[in-house]
Amino acid sequence: MDDTPGVHADERRALDRRILSLAVPALGALVAEPLFVLIDSAVVGRLGTAELAGLTIASTVLVTIVSIFVFLAYATTGAVARRLGAGDTRGALAVGLDGIWLALGLGVLTCAVAIGVAEPIVTALGASADVTPHAVAYLRASAPGIPGMLVVLAATGALRGLQDTRTPLVVAVVGAVVNTIGSITLVYGFNMGIAGSGLATALTQIGMGVVLAAIVLRGARARGVGLRPHPAGIMANARAGTPLLIRTLTLRAAILLTVATATKLGDATLAAHQIVNAVWGLTAFALDALAIAAQALVGHGLGARDVRQVRAVTRRCLQWGMGAGAVIGIAIAGLGWFVTPLFTSDPQVQRAAAISLVVIGLLLPLAAWPFVLDGVLMGAGDGRFLAWAGVITLVAYLPMVGAVWLWAPDGAAGLAWLWVAFAGGFIGARAITTGLRARGTAWMVLGA
């Protein structure tokens, strides 16, 4: 893409520094969750193919449950950034606190539901008799960490809106180290099997939530902001997040359909899908770091009524995103055959995963476009459009994944076609809808 029009070289370099100062630390925080999945995959994969397949089912359900409430981060970031851009720091912190209270309440309720329905959900996803007990054990062991996960989302969203992405980075790095040590210790040291891996992740997420919430609370107290929950503010956060909830549900529905299709293709294919999905999650969240920078800067720019800055941020983040997608994609496509043995010793699983890693490596630059534009539109508070776009793209994906379900062969070829449908078809549809929206001005609502 050409250089940002209307922005001089010095301004562009200053803008790059602002983007990268937010995106690089955000990268570490964003990859924490998929990094946990990668760590769990490596640890559990050594227990056997059935355990790894069980982790595929359970981790997909767990991430789906948590991702339903990802609006706690996205809506909070945009709202806090707008208040900050308008010069209302106390109001920004108050919004962040209300988001944390909402996250805690939703997390406790969701944890109880997840434990109760673990087995029916796993069964509904088509897990075999060998895989089901492992999936249920992991899901129930990790469910107590859900309140911590949701608080992490809300507190991280508040800090991003305040343009602090370094604190979540530090917490994420420490969390990854603790999770690795805990997972290995509980799985092998205490012979807890796959449940030990889930419990280690839960304890880590609870600790991360406590630390991040305490940091936001300390900042609020220093500004004289009341720490008690405010029902009106909590309800406002919930209303603002509802469209993003719908958008997330459509995304998770597409992912669940993809996992269900991989399940239909056999246990070995499902195990390979777990490896590919873990790598995809890591790289997708890495690209999403630019979306976080765009979200914070766009929200701040709209709050400050600076349309020119908003356009410049949007274009420059897209340039960075597509370039990063190309570089990361080449690395994934080239290194797939060397990465897969780290997760499993089964040659059939290794081959299927390696071929599909080539597929996602080639398609990753395309994925950068909707990831960045999602951040731009969320920063603008354009949740209603994102909800409708999510429904449209899900409908467009149904015949693609249906074709794989009906006609794709088992094994490596079937998994490759599945990822062509998801990373090419579904993500491509998202690129078209968000791209058309970003070209207009209807999403640029100015002020706090």
Automatic annotation (TrEMBL):
Asked whether the UniProt record includes Transmembrane among its keywords, one would answer yes
Where would you find this protein in the cell? Cell membrane
The membrane-spanning stretches of this chain are 19-39, 59-81, 93-117, 137-157, 169-188, 194-217, 244-263, 275-299, 320-340, 352-373, 385-408, 414-432
Q: Does the keyword Lipoprotein apply?
A: no
Name one cellular component (GO) term. plasma membrane
The superkingdom of the source organism is Bacteria
UniProt topology in membrane: Multi-pass membrane protein
Q: What is its main location?
A: membrane
Keywords, alphabetical: Cell membrane, Membrane, Transmembrane, Transmembrane helix, Transport
Question: Which GO MF term does the entry hold, naming one?
Answer: xenobiotic transmembrane transporter activity
Q: Which InterPro entries match?
A: DinF-like, MATE_fam, MdtK-like
Matching entries from Pfam families are given as: MatE
User: Which PANTHER family does UniProt cross-reference here?
Assistant: PROTEIN DETOXIFICATION 44, CHLOROPLASTIC, PROTEIN DETOXIFICATION 44, CHLOROPLASTIC-RELATED
Q: Which family does it belong to?
A: Belongs to the multi antimicrobial extrusion (MATE) (TC 2.A.66.1) family.
Record protein name field:
DNA-damage-inducible protein F
Could you tell me which species this protein originates from? Occultella aeris
Q: Which gene encodes it?
A: dinF
